[in-house]
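Below is a filled-in request sheet from our internal design queue. Each sheet records the structural input a requester submitted and the sequence that came back. We keep these sheets so that new team members can see what a complete request looks like end to end.

REQUESTER: design group, bay 2
PRIORITY: normal
MODE: inverse folding
CHAIN LENGTH: 225
BACKBONE (tokenized):
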């Protein structure tokens, strides 16, 4: 029996990374233009709340009359490469401890440096977790590709149906691996928590919290003997 977890909005709150990144960019702009970081951070958060993540830095830079391609690139670089101030959800810590006697993995998409920084900041290695940014193996390995999951099956020398994957995004998390026998669990958190999906995209099981995952439940899901 093997558990594989998604990262963002599954074991920690992704918005905490966004806020951490905005704070880092605000500090950079304060140092460069002598504009209070609290004001800049407020601009970014208001833009995020009203328009989403797109063009947040463009908007803030335009507001302070410093909009340029170079400044946008600098802000994006700082955001992506900063040391994030993020923490595992308490329920994730309890879950990792509950399954400490079983192989545990994290599989996450996105820029491999960004995701690696998140993994390091969260300290998941102390729970014996092997964390894998999919882009380390090439962009083609990102979900919904089953590539990394098939590697885990091979590494652990188990059949696909002995692996349970927990994620939050049915657009990509389950559709590529469910037909191959992997067991899938959707945690109802993050940006997709209130969205319904077809059975084609949906997981075998839905939970509201990682506290709901027990050894007996996972064994039942994967027909563990």
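RETURNED SEQUENCE:
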């Amino acid at each position: 029996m093997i558990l594989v977890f998604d990262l963002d909005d599954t074991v920690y709150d992704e918005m905490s990374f966004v806020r951490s990144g905005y704070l880092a960019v605000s500090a950079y702009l304060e140092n460069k233009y002598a504009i209070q970081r609290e004001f800049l951070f407020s601009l970014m958060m208001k833009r995020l709340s009203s328009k989403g993540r797109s063009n947040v830095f463009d908007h803030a830079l335009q507001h302070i009359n410093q909009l340029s391609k170079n400044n946008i690139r600098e802000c994006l670089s700082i955001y992506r490469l900063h040391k994030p101030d993020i923490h595992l959800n308490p329920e994730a810590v309890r879950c990792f401890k509950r399954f400490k006697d079983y192989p545990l993995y994290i599989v996450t998409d996105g820029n491999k440096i960004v995701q690696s920084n998140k993994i390091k900041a969260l300290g998941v290695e102390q729970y014996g977790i092997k964390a894998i940014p999919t882009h380390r193996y090439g962009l083609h390995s990102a979900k919904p590709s089953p590539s990394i999951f098939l590697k885990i099956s091979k590494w652990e020398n188990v059949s696909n149906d002995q692996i349970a994957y927990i994620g939050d995004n049915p657009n990509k998390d389950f559709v590529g691996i469910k037909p191959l026998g992997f067991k899938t669990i959707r945690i109802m958190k993050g940006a997709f928590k209130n969205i319904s999906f077809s059975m084609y995209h949906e997981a075998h099981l839905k939970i509201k919290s990682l506290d709901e995952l027990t050894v007996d439940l996972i064994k039942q899901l994967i027909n563990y003997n």
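SHEET NOTES:
- The chain has a mean pLDDT of 93.
- The beta strands are 2-5, 104-108, 129-133, 163-167, 183-187, 205-207.
FILED BY: M.R.
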